[in-house]
């Protein structure tokens, strides 16, 4: 049996695209340690780096049918890692800011209550996103959930970059107008989602 390092990336990509669990295992074997080291250099936490590696490879498996064996899979993996690191750091910063805010507010001193309030804010945003027109919702999710750039979204949806920018602006304005939150909490949530 070949080692992961002996199999070229195109062959690995083809194997994973076709749903081969062995191919996926070999891809993980080839790049898992590298992504872990890369993630650790930014996150400075063994646990967080391990969690991020799992997240990266889960996204690869979920998107396996779209893998292009002629493209550079190494770049694809690192791009997912960079976007995941960015999202992770942003989310951690918001959680820390929310925790600090909650600690300074007597009515939110209970940890369980903090979690309930935070989840309520997230649920509000998710509900509002569902009310957006289909194209706007799709663009918003590609931007905020998958971390795609405006250029990437435009290419993926066969739209102009200007249309993407316009729809993201309208999505953000809609959320700002309809969120029912304390002003400080609204700022924290906006930092996380917008």
Automatic annotation (TrEMBL):
What residue stretches are annotated with the RNA polymerase sigma factor 70 region 4 type domain? Answer: 125-172
GO molecular function terms noted in the UniProt entry: DNA binding; sigma factor activity
Q: Which GO terms describe its biological process?
A: DNA-templated transcription initiation
Show the Gene3D superfamilies listed in the entry.
1.10.1740.10, Winged helix-like DNA-binding domain superfamily/Winged helix DNA-binding domain (1.10.10.10)
Instruction: Specify whether Lyase is a keyword of the entry.
Output: no
Q: Report the InterPro entries cross-referenced here.
A: RNA_pol_sigma-70-like, RNA_pol_sigma-70_dom, RNA_pol_sigma70_bacteroid, RNA_pol_sigma70_ECF_CS, RNA_pol_sigma70_r2, RNA_pol_sigma70_r4_t2, RNA_pol_sigma_r2, RNA_pol_sigma_r3/r4-like
Q: Which SUPFAM superfamilies match?
A: Sigma2 domain of RNA polymerase sigma factors (SSF88946), Sigma3 and sigma4 domains of RNA polymerase sigma factors (SSF88659)
Please provide the record's keywords in A-Z order: DNA-binding, Sigma factor, Transcription, Transcription regulation
Outline the extent of the RNA polymerase sigma-70 region domain.
27-93
Question: Which family does the similarity line name?
Answer: Belongs to the sigma-70 factor family. ECF subfamily.
What is the name attached to this protein's record?
A: RNA polymerase sigma factor
> What organism does the record attribute this protein to?
Gaoshiqia sediminis
